[in-house]
Amino acid sequence: MSTDTLRDKTCFFSGHRDIPFDQYPAVQAKLKQAVETLIGKGVQYFGVGGAVGFDTIAALTILQLKKEHPQIRLILILPCKGHDFSWQGKDKAIFENIRKRADKVIYTTERYYDGCMYKRNRHMADSAGWGIVYLDRAAGGTAYTVSYAHSVGVRLTNLVDEE
Q1: pLDDT tens, residue by residue, 42-64
Q2: Total count of domains within the chain
Q3: What confidence tens digit (pLDDT) does each residue in 92-142 have?
């Protein structure tokens, strides 16, 4: 399969970590609809960065949709081994469950360093033809990733715009 064909079958996610918990159901409903639209266009591979907040919602949504669409794959694209070292309790348990159920786990670097999150984000955008994001502010990692994804021709859906 050519790189362009693989990119057309791949979607990545990027969004904020601090989505208020009471907004999770609405975000997940919009996310599910956007993912199902892409599945209808032949997208099979869904790359998630492994952070709390939007990444967790995205990973859980893909795992849920795999029951109806067994051809789709969840790929965790993590910035480094042990990236979750400071996570506590529930967040760590949810991530571990996601990691165990993912179809593939990719580490973009072995160890944490300043900039490894940006490397992970560029890797996701470079590998995908599609992106589903939750961006509601002009600064931060998600804003950087959206800007970079635009520059490499990724077709983006911002769930904030869908409100």
Answers
A1: 999 999 998 889 999 999 999 99
A2: 1
A3: 889 999 999 999 999 999 999 999 999 999 999 999 999 999 999 988 889
Q: Do the domain assignments include residue 163?
A: no
Write the CATH number for 17. 3.40.50.450
Would you state the structure tokens that stand for residue 46, as one six-digit string? 């869904």
**Alpha carbon distances (Å) from 23 to 20, 53, 134:** 6, 11, 12
Long-range contacts at 103-108 (CB < 8 A, ≥ 24 apart): 103/73, 103/74, 103/75, 104/73, 104/74, 104/75, 104/76, 105/75, 105/76, 105/78, 106/75, 106/76, 106/77, 106/78, 107/78, 107/79, 107/80, 107/81, 108/77, 108/78, 108/79, 108/80
136-141 own/partner pairs: CB under 8 Å, 24+ apart? 136/16, 136/160, 137/16, 140/16, 141/14, 141/117
**92 domain-assigned:** yes
